[in-house]
């Protein structure tokens, strides 16, 4: 955000004082802005953002700069700052719209990477608790991937990688929550489908050890001992120090079983790939 920082760093004192004096006691949206220059309106936006800490009002002034003076150099500055101010005021839809306009108008500009990052943040910062619908999480993942792929050498890409991993884990946690719900109600087939999804499709997340342990629970409850033992073997191979392995091992022993690969099926395939270094 080098360009944005440079824009927001200094305020032209003389022009700003003149603008503030002219505003008198009027609220931000009552000011007849058409009588002021693009620079003056833009600087008022900076003042609202940096001094008064009112990003919503700041976004108004940045937006007006762009609207009243669309072909001025200040319009480009105002548009990226508008996206930022809207994000700071948690108006994520407006932030995303402004950032996308910036990308459309100035795709090769230095701040294009930051605009793309703001699009991703507008989704990421809306990710709610695990119990909520995960549509926004999928959108965040795609937007974060766009940052990583389009601007790989930037700090925004590095930040996006970290956020991508967290959002990915969030989806896995949702699967686990639903799986535990089914398991508690002895709907073992539905529970297994959820835990299988975590093991197969969310292998890099922190949810995998518990998913394997829950598979041991579900398969032993159904009497499918080969699958239960294989799940235990995978858990022991990768997560022997995990408390989930201790729980799975104890459960298997109570049934006269041991954690080792048995039979055929999707878990045996996972085990085979794991031994060859293709899994986890």
UniProtKB/TrEMBL annotation:
Keyword flag Zinc: no
Classification via InterPro entries: BamD, BamD-like, TPR-like_helical_dom_sf
Outer membrane lipoprotein BamD-like domain segment(s): 37-231
GO biological process, alphabetically ordered: Gram-negative-bacterium-type cell outer membrane assembly; protein insertion into membrane
Cellular component GO terms, alphabetical: cell outer membrane
Keywords: Cell outer membrane, Lipoprotein, Membrane, Palmitate, Signal
Main localization category: membrane
Lineage, opening ranks: Bacteria, Pseudomonadati, Pseudomonadota, Alphaproteobacteria, Rhodobacterales
Pfam families, alphabetized: YfiO
Function: Part of the outer membrane protein assembly complex, which is involved in assembly and insertion of beta-barrel proteins into the outer membrane.
Coiled-coil stretches noted in the UniProt entry, renumbered to this chain: none
UniProt-recorded name of the protein: Outer membrane protein assembly factor BamD
Organism expressing this protein natively: Allgaiera indica
Subcellular location: Cell outer membrane
Membrane topology: Lipid-anchor
The family this protein is said to belong to: Belongs to the BamD family.
Subunit structure: Part of the Bam complex.
Signal peptide: 1-28
Domain of life: Bacteria
């Amino acid at each position: 955000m080098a360009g944005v920082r440079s824009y927001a760093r200094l305020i032209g004192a003389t022009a700003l004082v003149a603008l503030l004096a002219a505003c008198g006691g009027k609220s931000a949206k009552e000011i007849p802005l058409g009588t002021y220059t693009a620079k003056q309106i833009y600087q008022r936006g900076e003042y609202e953002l940096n001094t008064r800490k009112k990003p919503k009002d700041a976004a108004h002034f940045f937006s007006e700069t762009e609207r009243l003076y669309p072909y001025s150099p200040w319009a480009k500055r105002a548009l990226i700052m508008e996206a930022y101010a809207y994000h700071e005021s948690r108006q994520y839809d407006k932030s995303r719209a402004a950032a996308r306009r910036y990308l459309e108008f100035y795709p090769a500009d230095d701040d294009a990477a930051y605009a793309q990052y703001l699009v991703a943040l507008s989704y990421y910062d809306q990710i709610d608790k695990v119990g909520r619908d995960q549509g926004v999480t999928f959108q965040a993942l795609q937007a974060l991937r766009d940052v990583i792929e389009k601007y790989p050498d930037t700090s925004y890409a590095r930040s996006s990688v970290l956020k991508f991993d967290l959002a990915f884990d969030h989806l896995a946690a949702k699967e686990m929550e639903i799986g535990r719900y089914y398991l508690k109600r002895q709907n073992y087939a539905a529970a297994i489908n959820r835990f299988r999804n975590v093991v197969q499709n969310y292998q890099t997340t922190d949810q995998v050890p518990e998913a394997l342990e829950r598979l041991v629970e579900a398969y032993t409850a159904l009497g499918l001992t080969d699958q239960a033992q294989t799940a235990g073997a995978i858990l022991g191979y990768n997560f022997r120090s995990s408390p989930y392995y201790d729980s799975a091992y104890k459960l298997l022993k109570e049934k006269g079983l041991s954690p080792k690969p048995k039979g055929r099926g999707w878990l045996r395939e996972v085990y085979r790939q794991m031994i060859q270094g293709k899994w986890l």
